[in-house]
Amino acid sequence: MKVRVLVSFKESVLDPQGQTVKNALHSLGYNFVKDVRQGKVFEIEVDDLPREQLKVKIPEMADKVLANPIIEKFEWEILD
Asked: What is the pTM of this model?
């Protein structure tokens, strides 16, 4: 079974890399781009577990290892 975890900065946190990408897009003529936020994607293969266990374990992993809960948020989904 595969799980995808998406980690990104909270809206209140400045994203300098996203701003750099936005500025580069504008310099290439893509002026319709309003904002860019960068993040991380983790695709994790796990043993088959009941969904109820995954609902506990995946957020626990994200809080402890994958994301910094002070400045980042995450969402996740089961791919299989």
From this structure: 0.86
